[in-house]
Amino acid sequence: MNYSRQREAILDFLRSMKVKHPSADVVYVNVKKRFPNISLGTVYRNLNLLADNGTIAKVKLPSDADRFDHNTEPHFHIICENCGQIEDVGSALVNIDVVSIEKLSGFSVNAGRIVLKGLCPACRKKLSPIKRKDNKK
Amino acid sequence: MNYSRQREAILDFLRSMKVKHPSADVVYVNVKKRFPNISLGTVYRNLNLLADNGTIAKVKLPSDADRFDHNTEPHFHIICENCGQIEDVGSALVNIDVVSIEKLSGFSVNAGRIVLKGLCPACRKKLSPIKRKDNKK
DNA sequence: CTAAAAATAATAACCATTACTGTTTTTAAT
DNA sequence: ATTAAAAACAGTAATGGTTATTATTTTTAG
Q: Closest by alpha carbon to A111, among B116, B129, B52?
C-alpha cells in the first residue's frame, strides 16, 4: 500500500473527531475542503482499505449508510432512530450467551458488532411527548 | 386495508415456511408461481404493509436485503456470514443492560432486534479448516 | 349495479456502494 | 536525478435493494 495524500487527509479527518461516526459521504464533503478534486470513489476505496487493515473500523447499520470509526477497540453502538446519530456503547453492557447460542442454533458465533436502536438526547427532548416522526424505511 | 389475493398468497408463503426468513426477492419468485403477473413492487408494498400492522416482522440486516419473518414474537437472529441464511436466537440468550446504557449514553433504548453474525452448520463444515471466503461488502 | 377507494402491474427513480477506465502519483532500482 | 512498474487517482458508469409514480383493474359499501 503506497502513501497517498488523500488517504492521509481522510484518516486525519476521522481522527480529528469533528464528526463522530461519519458516513463516507460526510467524510467526502469534509475532505473536499482540503482536496477539492477528490472523488467519492477515492473516499470509499480508502475507507475500505483502512478498515481492512484494521486502522479504522467500519460500522454497518441496517437500512443506513455505513459509518466509520477511528476507535478500533471492540465496542457496540446505538443509533438514534430519528436523526441517525450513533454513539458508543461499552461492550460490557451487552452480554451474549455464546455457548448456549452455539449449542441451540448449531452456528458458530462471531460475537460481532451490535447496533442498538433508540433516541438520542436531543431527539428525545424534541419529540417527547409528541409522537416521534416515523421515518422507518 | 382491502382484501387482495396477492397479499393473501404472500402471507400464505411466509407461513408455509418453505423458506425460513425470505427476502422480498425470494417471496417474489415463489408467489410468482401462483400469480405469474405479480410485480416486485406489489411484493414490497404488501410485505411492508403486513410488517407495519404487525402481522409479520421485518428483519433488517446490515449490508444485506431485508428478510421477513412470520414469527412476530420478540427474538433475535443470527446470520451466516458465508451464505446469508438466518436463524432465530431466543431473546433470553442476549442480555442488554438497558438502564446502564441509558444512563451512560443519554439515549433512550428501544431494545430492538439484534442480529449476530456467525457461520451456519453447513458452511462451518464446508469451510473449516480452510479459511472461509471473505465476502464482506 | 355503481361509484369511490384501494390495490395492481409496469416502469422509472433513488441511494449507497462498487466497478471500470484512462491519467497521475508514488516508489524502488538504476 | 531518471525511469519504469505499481499503486492511486478523478470521473463516470453500473449495480442492487428499495421506493415512487402512473394508468388500469379489483374490491367494497351503498
A: B116
Map grid coordinates 423458506 to a residue.
B19
Interior CA angle at B90 toward B124 and B19, to 5°? 60
Q: Suggest the residue from B83, B116, B119, B123 to mutate for an interface test with chain A (most A CBs closer than 10 A).
A: B116
B126 in contact with A, Cβ within 8 Å: no
CB atoms closer than 10 angstroms to residue B4: 13
Last residue of a domain, one of B21, B53, B72: B72
- Pick from B19, B39, B72: which residue ends a domain? B72
Alpha carbon distance B24, B41 (integer Å): 10
Mean pLDDT (chain A) is: 92
Minimal Cβ distance to B109: which of A112, A116, A121: A116
Q: Are residues A55 and A26 in the same domain?
A: yes
The alpha carbon of residue A2 is apart from the nearest alpha carbon of chain B, in Å, by 23
pLDDT tens profile B21-40? 999 999 999 999 999 999 99
Are A86 and A26 contacting, i.e. CB atoms less than 8 angstroms apart?
A: no
pLDDT (tens digit per residue) in B48-58? 999 999 999 99
Q: Are residues B21 and B62 in the same domain?
A: yes
Residue A116 forms contact with B (CB below 8 Å):
yes
pLDDT of B127 reads 82
Closest in B78, B107, B124 to A87, CB measured: B107
Q: Do A110 and B60 touch (CB under 8 A)?
A: no
- Is A98's CB less than 7 Å from nucleic acid strand D? no
pLDDT below 50 — which residues of chain A? 132-137
Domain co-membership, B2 together with B41? yes
CATH, residue B107: 3.30.1490.190
Same domain, A5 and A68: yes
